[in-house]
Write a structure and sequence with these properties.
This protein is mainly α and about 80 residues long. About 70% of the residues lie in helices and about 0% in strands. The chain has one helix and no strands. It starts with about 20 loop residues before the first helix and ends in a 5-residue tail after the last helix. The model has no long low-confidence stretch (mean pLDDT about 80).
Length: about 80
């Protein structure tokens, strides 16, 4: 059974970089890309959650306004029509 060792390929020889750069530099570059993408996703998720929070606040205010207006219009309409007795 062949076991992988850090810094060696499965053939046992040290890895050869394809771009002429040292392997550590390529690994760091990939790590920076991953960290950057994860940070971007977290920032966008935070903005989305903030937007949802504000939409909920606006929705609650709009719901309260509709309830108050419906109550006032209902009272106004009840005063305009005399009761049938």
């Amino acid at each position: 059974m062949i076991r992988a060792q850090p810094g060696k390929s499965w053939t046992g020889r040290p890895p050869v970089p394809t771009s002429g750069r040292p392997v550590r530099e390529v690994e760091m570059r990939a790590l920076f890309w991953v960290v950057g993408v994860v940070a971007g996703v977290l920032v966008l998720l935070g903005l989305l959650l903030e937007a949802v929070r504000w939409l909920l606040v606006i929705g609650v205010i709009a719901l309260a306004a509709v309830i108050v207006l419906a109550f006032l219009r209902g009272r106004q309409s009840a005063h305009n029509y005399p009761s049938r007795r």
